[in-house]
Design goal:
This protein is of the alpha+beta class. It has 2 domains: about 160 residues, Ribosomal Protein S5, domain 2; about 100 residues, GHMP kinase, C-terminal domain (Alpha-Beta Plaits, 2-Layer Sandwich). About 25% of the residues lie in helices and about 35% in strands.
Length: about 260
Protein backbone atom coordinates (compact mmCIF):
# COMPACT_ATOMS: atom_id res chain seq x y z
CA UNK A 1 0.00 0.00 0.00
CA UNK A 2 1.17 3.52 -0.79
CA UNK A 3 2.74 5.64 1.95
CA UNK A 4 3.56 9.34 2.05
CA UNK A 5 5.62 11.17 4.67
CA UNK A 6 6.18 14.86 5.37
CA UNK A 7 7.41 16.95 8.30
CA UNK A 8 4.85 19.46 9.54
CA UNK A 9 6.73 22.60 10.63
CA UNK A 10 5.90 25.14 13.29
CA UNK A 11 5.27 28.75 12.25
CA UNK A 12 6.46 32.14 13.40
CA UNK A 13 4.31 35.27 13.39
CA UNK A 14 6.42 38.28 12.42
CA UNK A 15 4.18 41.04 13.73
CA UNK A 16 0.45 40.67 14.36
CA UNK A 17 -1.54 43.87 14.03
CA UNK A 18 -5.27 44.16 14.62
CA UNK A 19 -6.77 46.55 12.07
CA UNK A 20 -10.41 46.42 13.17
CA UNK A 21 -13.30 44.07 13.74
CA UNK A 22 -16.01 42.63 11.52
CA UNK A 23 -19.69 43.07 12.49
CA UNK A 24 -19.76 39.37 13.46
CA UNK A 25 -17.11 40.03 16.12
CA UNK A 26 -14.13 38.48 14.33
CA UNK A 27 -10.99 40.60 14.36
CA UNK A 28 -9.40 41.90 11.15
CA UNK A 29 -5.68 41.20 11.36
CA UNK A 30 -2.49 41.31 9.39
CA UNK A 31 0.53 39.13 10.17
CA UNK A 32 3.50 37.65 8.36
CA UNK A 33 3.49 33.86 8.73
CA UNK A 34 6.83 32.13 8.23
CA UNK A 35 7.50 28.36 8.30
CA UNK A 36 9.92 27.36 11.05
CA UNK A 37 11.22 23.95 9.93
CA UNK A 38 13.69 23.61 12.82
CA UNK A 39 10.71 22.51 14.94
CA UNK A 40 8.35 19.99 13.37
CA UNK A 41 6.05 17.02 13.86
CA UNK A 42 6.23 13.86 11.74
CA UNK A 43 3.24 12.88 9.60
CA UNK A 44 2.88 9.67 7.62
CA UNK A 45 -0.21 8.52 5.77
CA UNK A 46 -0.72 5.00 4.44
CA UNK A 47 -3.47 4.01 2.03
CA UNK A 48 -5.54 1.07 3.32
CA UNK A 49 -8.12 -1.16 1.62
CA UNK A 50 -11.57 0.39 1.59
CA UNK A 51 -12.98 3.89 1.64
CA UNK A 52 -14.03 6.68 3.99
CA UNK A 53 -12.14 5.41 7.02
CA UNK A 54 -9.39 7.14 8.98
CA UNK A 55 -7.17 5.45 11.57
CA UNK A 56 -5.18 7.95 13.63
CA UNK A 57 -2.18 6.84 15.71
CA UNK A 58 -0.31 9.48 17.72
CA UNK A 59 2.95 9.37 19.67
CA UNK A 60 5.03 12.01 21.41
CA UNK A 61 3.26 14.88 23.16
CA UNK A 62 -0.27 14.01 24.27
CA UNK A 63 -3.18 15.60 22.41
CA UNK A 64 -6.09 17.18 24.31
CA UNK A 65 -8.77 14.64 25.17
CA UNK A 66 -12.45 14.91 24.34
CA UNK A 67 -12.07 16.84 21.08
CA UNK A 68 -12.35 15.66 17.49
CA UNK A 69 -8.89 15.97 15.99
CA UNK A 70 -8.40 18.52 13.21
CA UNK A 71 -7.25 15.71 10.91
CA UNK A 72 -10.53 13.87 11.36
CA UNK A 73 -12.52 17.07 10.74
CA UNK A 74 -10.51 17.85 7.60
CA UNK A 75 -10.94 14.30 6.25
CA UNK A 76 -14.71 14.47 6.78
CA UNK A 77 -15.09 17.93 5.23
CA UNK A 78 -12.95 16.98 2.22
CA UNK A 79 -15.15 13.97 1.53
CA UNK A 80 -18.27 16.12 1.78
CA UNK A 81 -16.82 18.80 -0.52
CA UNK A 82 -15.77 16.31 -3.19
CA UNK A 83 -19.01 14.35 -2.86
CA UNK A 84 -17.04 11.20 -3.59
CA UNK A 85 -15.39 8.46 -1.52
CA UNK A 86 -11.93 9.05 -0.08
CA UNK A 87 -9.35 6.26 0.25
CA UNK A 88 -9.15 4.67 3.68
CA UNK A 89 -6.06 5.95 5.48
CA UNK A 90 -3.85 5.09 8.42
CA UNK A 91 -2.22 8.22 9.83
CA UNK A 92 0.81 8.17 12.10
CA UNK A 93 1.54 11.47 13.83
CA UNK A 94 4.50 12.07 16.12
CA UNK A 95 4.09 15.30 18.10
CA UNK A 96 7.04 17.51 19.08
CA UNK A 97 5.59 21.00 18.66
CA UNK A 98 4.35 22.25 22.05
CA UNK A 99 0.56 22.41 22.25
CA UNK A 100 -1.36 25.67 22.91
CA UNK A 101 1.87 27.67 22.54
CA UNK A 102 1.05 29.74 19.43
CA UNK A 103 3.30 27.64 17.18
CA UNK A 104 0.57 26.24 14.95
CA UNK A 105 1.27 22.56 15.51
CA UNK A 106 -2.28 21.28 15.04
CA UNK A 107 -2.82 23.62 12.08
CA UNK A 108 0.41 22.45 10.48
CA UNK A 109 -0.53 18.79 10.93
CA UNK A 110 -3.86 19.44 9.22
CA UNK A 111 -2.57 21.59 6.37
CA UNK A 112 0.15 19.08 5.46
CA UNK A 113 -2.35 16.21 5.84
CA UNK A 114 -4.68 17.86 3.31
CA UNK A 115 -1.76 18.54 0.96
CA UNK A 116 -0.72 14.86 1.07
CA UNK A 117 -4.27 13.66 0.44
CA UNK A 118 -4.45 16.07 -2.47
CA UNK A 119 -1.40 14.35 -3.96
CA UNK A 120 -3.03 10.92 -3.60
CA UNK A 121 -6.24 11.75 -5.43
CA UNK A 122 -6.76 11.39 -9.16
CA UNK A 123 -6.69 14.05 -10.42
CA UNK A 124 -4.53 15.62 -7.69
CA UNK A 125 -5.85 18.62 -5.79
CA UNK A 126 -3.74 21.77 -5.70
CA UNK A 127 -3.25 23.80 -2.50
CA UNK A 128 -5.49 26.47 -4.02
CA UNK A 129 -8.35 23.97 -4.36
CA UNK A 130 -7.82 22.74 -0.78
CA UNK A 131 -7.71 26.27 0.66
CA UNK A 132 -11.46 26.65 1.25
CA UNK A 133 -11.72 23.32 3.08
CA UNK A 134 -8.67 24.13 5.20
CA UNK A 135 -10.18 27.49 6.19
CA UNK A 136 -13.33 25.74 7.41
CA UNK A 137 -11.26 23.72 9.89
CA UNK A 138 -9.07 26.53 11.28
CA UNK A 139 -7.83 29.99 10.30
CA UNK A 140 -4.10 29.11 10.37
CA UNK A 141 -4.47 25.90 8.38
CA UNK A 142 -4.48 27.29 4.80
CA UNK A 143 -1.01 28.78 5.37
CA UNK A 144 0.49 25.30 5.81
CA UNK A 145 -0.68 24.23 2.35
CA UNK A 146 1.85 26.49 0.64
CA UNK A 147 5.28 25.94 2.31
CA UNK A 148 6.41 29.58 2.04
CA UNK A 149 6.09 32.92 3.88
CA UNK A 150 2.70 34.54 3.51
CA UNK A 151 0.99 37.73 4.58
CA UNK A 152 -2.23 36.64 6.29
CA UNK A 153 -5.13 39.08 6.36
CA UNK A 154 -8.81 39.25 7.25
CA UNK A 155 -9.37 36.61 9.90
CA UNK A 156 -6.10 35.01 8.80
CA UNK A 157 -7.29 32.94 5.84
CA UNK A 158 -6.60 35.48 3.08
CA UNK A 159 -3.02 34.79 2.02
CA UNK A 160 -0.51 36.24 -0.41
CA UNK A 161 3.16 35.37 -0.83
CA UNK A 162 5.75 37.66 0.74
CA UNK A 163 9.49 37.57 0.14
CA UNK A 164 11.13 36.97 3.52
CA UNK A 165 13.89 34.72 4.84
CA UNK A 166 15.11 33.81 8.31
CA UNK A 167 18.53 32.79 6.95
CA UNK A 168 20.22 35.99 8.14
CA UNK A 169 19.08 35.41 11.72
CA UNK A 170 19.56 32.96 14.54
CA UNK A 171 16.14 32.15 15.97
CA UNK A 172 15.92 31.56 19.71
CA UNK A 173 12.57 30.08 20.69
CA UNK A 174 11.28 29.98 24.27
CA UNK A 175 8.21 27.97 25.23
CA UNK A 176 7.30 28.27 28.91
CA UNK A 177 4.78 25.71 30.21
CA UNK A 178 1.86 28.18 30.16
CA UNK A 179 -0.75 26.99 27.66
CA UNK A 180 -2.66 29.91 26.15
CA UNK A 181 -6.19 29.63 24.75
CA UNK A 182 -6.40 31.57 21.48
CA UNK A 183 -10.16 32.09 21.93
CA UNK A 184 -9.70 33.54 25.42
CA UNK A 185 -6.89 35.83 24.26
CA UNK A 186 -8.98 37.29 21.44
CA UNK A 187 -11.98 37.72 23.74
CA UNK A 188 -9.85 39.85 26.04
CA UNK A 189 -8.47 42.02 23.23
CA UNK A 190 -9.92 45.53 23.63
CA UNK A 191 -9.79 48.20 20.87
CA UNK A 192 -7.32 50.22 22.92
CA UNK A 193 -4.74 47.49 22.24
CA UNK A 194 -5.18 47.48 18.43
CA UNK A 195 -2.29 48.78 16.34
CA UNK A 196 -4.66 49.60 13.44
CA UNK A 197 -1.71 49.93 11.03
CA UNK A 198 -0.58 47.56 8.25
CA UNK A 199 2.65 45.67 8.87
CA UNK A 200 4.07 45.63 5.34
CA UNK A 201 5.56 49.15 5.39
CA UNK A 202 7.26 48.27 8.69
CA UNK A 203 8.61 44.96 7.38
CA UNK A 204 10.33 46.83 4.56
CA UNK A 205 12.27 48.95 7.09
CA UNK A 206 15.53 47.83 8.78
CA UNK A 207 14.95 45.27 11.53
CA UNK A 208 16.48 47.76 13.99
CA UNK A 209 13.22 49.76 13.74
CA UNK A 210 10.89 46.84 14.40
CA UNK A 211 11.16 46.92 18.20
CA UNK A 212 9.25 50.21 18.36
CA UNK A 213 6.96 49.77 15.37
CA UNK A 214 6.15 46.09 14.81
CA UNK A 215 3.87 44.63 17.47
CA UNK A 216 2.02 41.50 18.39
CA UNK A 217 -1.19 43.07 19.65
CA UNK A 218 -2.13 39.85 21.47
CA UNK A 219 0.76 40.42 23.91
CA UNK A 220 -1.34 42.99 25.77
CA UNK A 221 -3.78 40.28 26.83
CA UNK A 222 -1.41 37.32 27.23
CA UNK A 223 1.03 39.32 29.36
CA UNK A 224 -1.80 40.31 31.70
CA UNK A 225 -2.89 36.68 32.10
CA UNK A 226 0.70 35.42 32.38
CA UNK A 227 2.92 38.24 33.75
CA UNK A 228 5.93 35.89 33.65
CA UNK A 229 6.03 36.24 29.85
CA UNK A 230 7.06 39.91 29.88
CA UNK A 231 10.45 39.41 31.57
CA UNK A 232 11.17 36.57 29.12
CA UNK A 233 10.72 38.95 26.21
CA UNK A 234 12.93 41.50 27.96
CA UNK A 235 15.57 38.79 28.48
CA UNK A 236 15.68 38.15 24.74
CA UNK A 237 16.39 41.83 24.07
CA UNK A 238 18.93 41.97 26.91
CA UNK A 239 20.71 39.02 25.28
CA UNK A 240 21.09 40.94 22.03
CA UNK A 241 17.98 40.12 19.98
CA UNK A 242 17.38 42.45 17.07
CA UNK A 243 13.67 41.75 17.42
CA UNK A 244 11.69 39.77 19.99
CA UNK A 245 8.01 38.95 20.20
CA UNK A 246 5.45 36.62 21.60
CA UNK A 247 4.46 34.17 18.89
CA UNK A 248 0.79 34.11 17.90
CA UNK A 249 -1.37 34.00 21.01
CA UNK A 250 1.50 32.60 23.10
CA UNK A 251 2.92 31.35 25.28
CA UNK A 252 5.98 30.85 23.08
CA UNK A 253 8.29 33.78 22.41
CA UNK A 254 11.14 34.16 19.96
CA UNK A 255 14.11 36.40 19.37
CA UNK A 256 15.84 37.11 16.07
CA UNK A 257 19.59 37.42 16.64
CA UNK A 258 22.29 38.33 14.12
CA UNK A 259 23.83 35.19 12.71
CA UNK A 260 27.56 35.10 13.50
Amino acid sequence: MKKLYAPTPAKLNIGLHILGRWPNGYHILQTLLVPYPALYDDLEIEVLPGQNRLELHTTGLALPEGEENFLQVAYRLLGQALDSPLPALRVRLHKRIPISAGLGGGSSNTGVFLRLIGQLLDPPLSPEKLHTIAAQVGTDIPFFLYEKPMIAEGIGTQLRPYSFSLEAYEVVLMTPPLPCSTKHIYRGLRPIYWSRTPIEPILSEPISTWREKLHNDLEWVSFQIYPALLPLKKALYDAGALYASMNGSGSSLYGLFPRS
